[in-house]
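Thread: S-adenosylmethionine complex, take 2
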Amino acid sequence: MVAEALAFLVTDPEGRYLDATLGRGGHAGAILDSHPGATVLGCDRDPDALARVKNELLPRFGNRLGLELLPFSSLHLLPGGFAGALFDLGLSTEQLSDPERGFSFNLDGPLDMRMDRTQGSRASDLVNLPEEELAGIIHRYGDERRARRVARAIVEARPLNTTLELAEVVRRAVGPSGGIDPATRTFQALRMAVNDEPGELERGLESAVSLIKPGGRLVTISYHSGEDRIVKLFFQRMSGHCVCPPGTPACRCDPANALVVITKKPLQPSIDEVKHNPRARSAKLRAAEIRNHVPVKRGGDPRKR
Ligand SMILES: C[S@@+](CC[C@H](N)C(=O)[O-])C[C@H]1O[C@@H](n2cnc3c(N)ncnc32)[C@H](O)[C@@H]1O
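Output below.
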């Protein structure tokens, strides 16, 4: 959804844009190619992604492209004044297709799953958690109905060292799964927990709102319902709507009049795009325009407090 993302994002052809999920630099490169007066700061938490873009794109764009190794939770450290910011969430093709990263249930590799391999716990640490805790992660982040059964099977099969070992155990525990690989939800849950994806996303969006100039756009592309729900609630709350659960006696979510939602419903890829890029089939694009500057403050989804 490169063309659609750019159509929402670029309001100033000479603006400075934040690509918070640089990946292979596809979106960043497209902004710079189509708008010769624009500049981009590309950030990613994955040092491998930055190294690749440094080799492949920097020679082409020179100082129009800045690069920062930065997780969403540190974006507030950047100087503001961006004309827009893009969050193309999830994993890059490079991360998914490298067996050594441990993200794929179809490729044999270590149980790693860290986007930044220089720090933090690996998936191998999580599969060794107590059964209850493991079931909670698989249920909460993977929406897996059979989370308890999966957690029990993992505990019984330990030690587990590789992605294929884990995938086999999960497939046996889950059984047929309505067209998707039965290991999908558990792998998604572990990956989200390893990288604290929900917390990172909430903090990144909060920061972006304060980094973008009024009139600039915040564009997100999410790939599963958990991510999309965080963005949707954030947009609602930042456009002045209370998102507290029904029945909450007094509002605790601290709504702000910071933005106006442009996409009432999320945009989804065309049939043609899905044919060329099957991974895009679950993509949902949302966009909002910043109206008022708000300083970074840590609000978030009150349902999780
Ligand atoms: C779908 S890819 C982006 C692809 C990119 N738009 C392109 O066109 O090549 C998502 C990227 O976001 C990065 N990412 C995900 N969560 C992040 C976070 N919390 N902080 C920084 N980068 C993150 C991943 O490492 C990955 O490289």
